[in-house]
């Protein structure tokens, strides 16, 4: 049997929506986008709990970002964007948003 076609447009739209929501939530909590774009930084468990408490949508977005491999946990167990997540963020918000230099 042939596997069903992958809805890449729908997946990318969901990812972009999650990234946009994440950016707004981070801003409201006083964070900058570099918090999640720099691989050795990231969001600690307490911050993730605050995001979840602040938004009903956060848990679903976090799952979507992780399952699509746009985000992961680094060695310090902090939530960060992967190359894919940074690339999408760069496309959405411009060069400075995903600048890891």
What does this structure look like?
With 101 residues, the protein is mainly alpha-helical. The protein is 55% helix and 6% strand. It contains 5 helices and 2 strands; from the N terminus they run ααααββα. Strands 1-2 form a two-stranded antiparallel ribbon. The relative contact order is 0.19.
Count of runs of 4 or more consecutive helical residues: 5
Major β-sheet strand ordering: 1-2
Tell me the strand percentage band. Answer: 5-15%
Instruction: Outline the low-pLDDT stretches.
Output: none
Task: Output mean pLDDT.
Answer: 85
N-to-C series of helices and strands: HHHHEEH
Largest sheet: 2 strands, antiparallel
Helix content: 55-70%
Shape estimate? globular
Derived from helix and strand composition plus strand pairing, the structural class reads: mainly alpha
Distance between the termini: 46 Å
Number of strands: 2
Any idea what the radius of gyration is?
Answer: 14 Å
């Amino acid at each position: 049997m042939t596997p069903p076609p992958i809805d890449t447009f729908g997946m990318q739209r969901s990812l972009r929506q999650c990234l946009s929501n994440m950016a707004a939530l981070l801003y409201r909590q006083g964070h900058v986008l570099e918090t999640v774009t720099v691989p050795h930084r990231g969001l600690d468990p307490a911050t993730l709990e605050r995001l979840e408490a602040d938004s009903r949508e956060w848990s679903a977005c976090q799952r979507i970002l992780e399952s699509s491999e746009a985000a992961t946990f680094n060695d310090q167990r902090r939530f960060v964007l992967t190359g894919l997540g940074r690339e999408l963020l760069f496309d959405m918000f411009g060069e400075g948003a995903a600048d890891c230099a």
